[in-house]
Amino acid sequence: xxxxxSVAGSERPARYELLGELASGGMxxxxxxxxxxxxxxxxxxxxxxxxxxxxxxxxAAMFLDEATLTARIKHxxxxxTLDVVSAEGKLLIVMEYVEGVSLAKLLEIAWGRRTRxxxxxxVRILTDVLRGLHAAHELVDERGRPLSVVHRDVSPQNVLVGxxxxxxxxxxxxxxxxxxxxxxxxGEIKGKLSYMPPEQQFxxxxxxxxxxxxxxxxxxxxxxxxxxxxxxxxxELARLVFEGRVDPPSVAAENVPPAxxxxxxxxxxxxxxxxxxxxxxxxxxxxxxxxPAPRGDVVATLRAIAQGEIEARARHVSELDGPRAARLERxxxxxxxxxxxxxxxxxxxxxxFAPPTKVESPSARxxxxxxxxxxxxxxxxxxxxxxxxxxxxxxxxxxLRLALVIGGLVLVIVLLMVVALVLxxxxxxxxxxxxxxxVLDRTHAHVHLRTRGDVARxxxxxxxxxxxxxx
Length: 471
Description:
The protein is of the alpha+beta class and 471 residues long. The chain has helices at 51-54, 57-70, 103-112, 119-137, 172-179, 198-201, 208-224, 234-243, 249-252, 259-267, 279-289, 295-320, 330-342, 362-372, 378-470; strands spanning 16-24, 28-37, 40-49, 81-87, 90-96, 100-102, 159-162, 167-169. The longest helix has 93 residues, at 378-470.
């Protein structure tokens, strides 16, 4: 029996019940549901990707590959993936339901009240996140081969802090597929540039150290109580990340132990070679710098800051799970039908991922990708072409700006040269005219002297003639 949320009042066996909508965002709608099995029933969260994303074949293929892969991750600090479904134009991921609030909501409320999460509690939360990341990074297939899982979107929005005092990371299955798209229209995906390391922003291969960088940004914001990178647009934000100018947390905020500075700043190193080599190593260093708070302190902090949000969420869930819950909307009914008809299928085993190849330069990277990578599917090829087209447009814009700057400099230099040439010609003309006057003066003097000599000689001749005549 599907209870009060049955589709059109029908009754039929099903693995799932859908109770109602929990939240909606630009990428997906999340429903509260109940999953029934031989062991009993449990609340679940059903994430339904937006219709425009499900219609994108490249996104759908990559979503399924990644989501089925990361469904293997079984760790207390990772929100468990229970089912992955693709049917009738729907992309669904069924996860365990965690009673608590997202780290993003916790920070939003704390910043609005001008308060901060205590450092020891922040260390506990980030230690949990790093443990979950390390479990994903170490994932192997049946033959023991590394699967090279990287989250790519570690951010406060993807961390849940439960009322049991445990922090969990989620959305491994969506991160890689989402990273292939970069559009700005509302209702579609846009990467969180504030948490992306430089190599990810430039489209280079990422590895576990890229997630370490993002975890460092989250930890800095938890300790300081504000955003690390803020800018007017994406270009300025990318420049700030690339420059990597970060104040130590103990300098940016009061009452932050200086022992945490080294851990945070190394995680935020611009060069990945300078970061902690694994999430587990960073977690060990955190625990050595400041003792993590007990779970009870995490719960007390959560309730002190976000008690109103916790109570509102509990009331909403109670209403959805109650006997008088409203009938599902048409969209939710479609989701339920897909779940009840496809839920019994086994999640297919994914193919192992090859470790990312280290590339020395952008030109070498482009040549390597163009020459050696042969997409297995047209949808994957279109995704690769889309990324290449975006990089080509960015490079073209940079070349255009550089060409305009160089052209302006060349024009200024040419004008200066022309002015200098004109001034030189005028100076030479003036000098030539001066020299001509000097020659003319000397000629006049010479003629004058010759004239005076001739006159003198004539006078002398006349005198001699008179004397000769007189004689």
